[in-house]
């Protein structure tokens, strides 16, 4: 913010980006914090008179938050029967020492499908890197090393948009006009994505019918040039008027973005809290059940900043086992491309893998 007013062409509040791909993401640490708060809220609603250590110790706000006692805030209870403190961990033991890492771990939430305006209505773009998150290995779209491009044809393959059929020879994605290529196995990709979600969520069919596949490099480019940048003004709560020099801008994922993240749950049987067996949960499935208590809250209260503007609300579409790995080829030259489903990667010792994906609902309600 300059002294004489807002500067043009600069965004003050930027989204966190993946350092390698430059595609925006939600850090797993942010997700874990939001999940913890909402699980504590859910537990508080079902157990409003909860006691711990012989005194009233409501799950919310005490087992939510950062956990260091301060004023009226008691901090994390750190009890082996507390679903919040065992699933999400706590910062300290009873004697102010130790702590517990928690039974659930969260990966970053990555963009899986991203809505882009075209002249024929919105298209949801994806890329091999994004599809790998949900177990789809897509070949023939990306040359891994751009230095390896032998001829101009490789370059053209990278700059194309892949669709299930080509009604037009070109498609404009935002301000980019791209040649259309047909991927014969496109339906396999759409079907795999469809099978990830629960049957009661119907909007995704609309999305999957408008799927478009681009290279990883183009994906990052298109996402970053189609983020919403909004300008807002800070309001002084005392006067209700705009603060002087309080104009700011921020960027956001557009409404309808589909994100994917994984929740890894550990087996409580392998852990002890101050020598005591964890009694709040006893299996990885039970850990996941507690984590899922947050999902209705994500839909209404959202994640991230600008919550009062209705931003960041997520609808969780899928919350089950990890998808199996499948290989799809979009290479134009290969006509006998094989699709070979294989078993999902084995869970690590004492752990279970579960995933959830959701739509980021930017924009006003
Ligand atoms: Zn607790």
From TrEMBL:
The domain of life for this entry's organism is Bacteria
Q: Which GO terms describe its biological process?
A: defense response to virus
CRISPR type III-associated protein domain spans which residues? 4-315
Which InterPro entries does this one have?
A: CRISPR-assoc_RAMP_Cmr4, RAMP_III_fam
What is one Pfam family matched by this protein?
Answer: RAMPs
Q: Which UniProt keywords apply?
A: Antiviral defense
Which segments carry the region annotation Disordered?
324-365
Question: Transmembrane segments in this chain: where?
Answer: none
Q: Where is the composition biased (Low complexity)?
A: 324-359
Instruction: Write down what this protein is called.
Output: CRISPR-associated protein Cmr4
Q: Which organism is it from?
A: Thermoflexus hugenholtzii JAD2
